[in-house]
Amino acid sequence: MSAKKERERRREERLQRESEAAENARRQRLIKLGSAAAFLAIVAVAVAVVISQSGTSGGDTSLEDVAEVESDLGGIPQDKLTLGRPTAQVTLVEFGDLQCPICRDFAVNVLPELIANKIRTGEAKIEFRNFPILGPESVTAAPAAIAAGEQGRGWNFIEVFYKNQGIENTGYVTEDFLESIAKGAKVPDVGRWNREREGEAAAAEVRRTAGEAERLGFSGTPSFAVEGPGTSGLEALGTLGSLGEFEEAIEGAS
Q: Which domain holds residue 150?
């Protein structure tokens, strides 16, 4: 075979390889585009289903699940923002933001069983400390919980708020919304609650607990710490997910 024919053969082979590579790349792009379209369609359906099932996007003054909160917490002592018997040796501390959707997930999906298994039995108590990091509405909501705690309804306020939480920083944390939460939590004296949530003492308490969270190295919510006979003071746990992790932390601190 002449050198010219050999060069032509190699050229044809190269062109063939390039053509095959280009066709393969085109197919991969089509596959990716199809997959992306399918994924977006699935997401759209999922969002539609969630909205249709929930019936509300939260942040409404027509409250939901008030009776459920009362049932979950009924009969358990409350002192300010601490839920549980004063004699409980272990204290689980939640640093939370009332606007935080992950805090809401904890309140809805983990806390009821934790209350039933560990708090109601007197093995531990749980304290909520405000760490309002998501925006101005978080800062507005935090002292409202503290003021409810001054009348022994702090945890009811927190839980009713979470059950009716809206989308963060959309303007839903209004005076009307907060007052509806206070009434749903059965705060006895709403006038006193209004005065105290706007006072310097509540604001100072929010600053104190937020500073404490930062000193513990926390940068997100919810973050947890525990204190008991088996710990050296208040020990940071970070973010826990499952009921088993919380129970293990409480048992380890006992």
A: 66-253
